[in-house]
Design goal:
By secondary structure, the chain is mainly α. It has three helices and no strands.
Length: about 100
Amino acid sequence: MKWHEMVAMTDEELIATFDATSVNTVVGLDWFREELTRRAFERSAVESQELAKASLEEAREARALAAASLKVANRNYWVAIGAFGAAILLGLVQIWIAVAG
C-alpha cells in the first residue's frame, strides 16, 4: 500500500486494514511504547482542554465580580461626594445662623 492511499482511507478502513495485516505481522516492543505514548498524549490533550474550559469559566466569573466591584465603588464615590457636599452645606448653614443670630 502506498502512503497516499493510506492517508486517503477513513478511520474505519484503516482499522480494518490494520486488523487484517496484523494477523501475519510480528509487532516489536517499540509499537507498544509508541501506543502508550500516543494514549498519554491523548489523555493530556483532553485534560488540557478541560483545564482551559475551567480557566475560561473562572475568568468570566472574575470579570463579573470586577464589574460588580466597579458598580459598588462608583456608588461609594457618589455617596462620598454627597456627604462632602452635605458637610459643606451644614457648615455654611451654621455660619449663617451664627452671623444672623
